[in-house]
Design brief:
By secondary structure, the protein is of the alpha/beta class. Helix content is 44%, strand content 14%. The structure holds zinc ion.
């Protein structure tokens, strides 16, 4: 079976500062080359935010976040339908973040994140805090999807319990303990999705267990390119003997299409 593949979790880049690959000097990378990398792997669409790894003294800087959001829009112009842009907000910059949500909504951008608090100078505990809560309410009102880096299980629990109407996509299944907490949150809210990028998927039976626990409709294919190789994650789903073709099809593209209205 030939599967259409949408990579829900990527961080495209235009500049060296926003390329988070750890082996950048060995990979001959560019914004143009990104399209070829995914094309050869049969991926028709990528989603996600532009991020940069900043030195500690440069964190907590709204200008830098705004610049990355602008870069996502620039890449959108360049890539067209190939790319679904995501943007960042920051609970320490409430006014600016509200304005950003408004600006992006007007442009038709409905994806917030992946948010990566530790790169932008905020904390896991902010997930359950009042400021972020205000931003989540606004995102919910505007039917936006909030993709976030997993961190702080108790804080994520509170966030999800307090915002059952907000559509969340948690990134990274993680190791056993964290993965089981994701499963609990899946049961807490029907609007809680899990993307497969980063840690966790290489554990035998992990995907089978996820589907047995909450079905195949809320799992999204994701890689975290360019920090991870999408080929490895494609293989992880495609070659999983414990999954049916229809489950693979949902994970690879059908769920993302439904979620993003594509
Ligand atoms: Zn990521």
């Amino acid at each position: 079976m030939n599967f259409e593949i949408i990579d829900f979790h990527t961080h495209p880049f235009l500049r060296r500062e926003t390329n988070i690959c750890q082996h950048i000097d060995n990979c001959n990378m560019s914004a143009e080359e990104t399209v070829n990398v995914f094309g050869k792997l049969g991926v028709s669409k990528i989603c996600g935010s532009v991020i940069s790894v900043r030195p500690n003294d440069k964190k907590n800087n709204w200008q830098e976040i705004k610049r990355n959001n602008d870069e996502a829009l620039e890449l959108w112009k360049m890539y067209g339908d190939f790319y679904v842009p995501g943007f960042h907000v920051h609970p320490g910059y409430l006014e600016e973040s509200f304005a950003e949500i408004e600006r992006m909504d007007k442009l038709g951008v409905k994806l917030i994140g992946e948010l990566v608090p530790y790169l932008d100078g905020w904390k896991w505990s902010d997930y359950a805090g009042d400021s972020f809560s205000e931003l989540l309410r606004e995102a919910g009102k505007r039917n936006m999807v909030v993709s976030f880096h997993s961190g702080g299980n108790d804080d994520m629990d509170k966030m999800v319990k307090n915002h059952k109407d907000v559509v969340f996509v948690a990134a990274h299944p993680g190791e056993y303990g964290d993965f089981m907490r994701h499963i609990e949150r899946m049961k807490m809210s029907e609007n809680y999705y899990l993307d497969l990028s980063g840690y966790g998927m290489f554990r035998y039976g992990m995907l089978r267990r996820a589907i047995d626990e909450f079905g195949a409709d809320r799992i999204l294919f994701g890689s975290d390119y360019p920090t991870c190789h999408p080929g490895m994650y494609i293989g992880g789903v495609l070659l999983d003997n414990l999954l049916t073709d229809s489950e693979k099809e949902k994970i690879f593209s059908l769920n993302a299409k439904k979620l993003l209205g594509l």
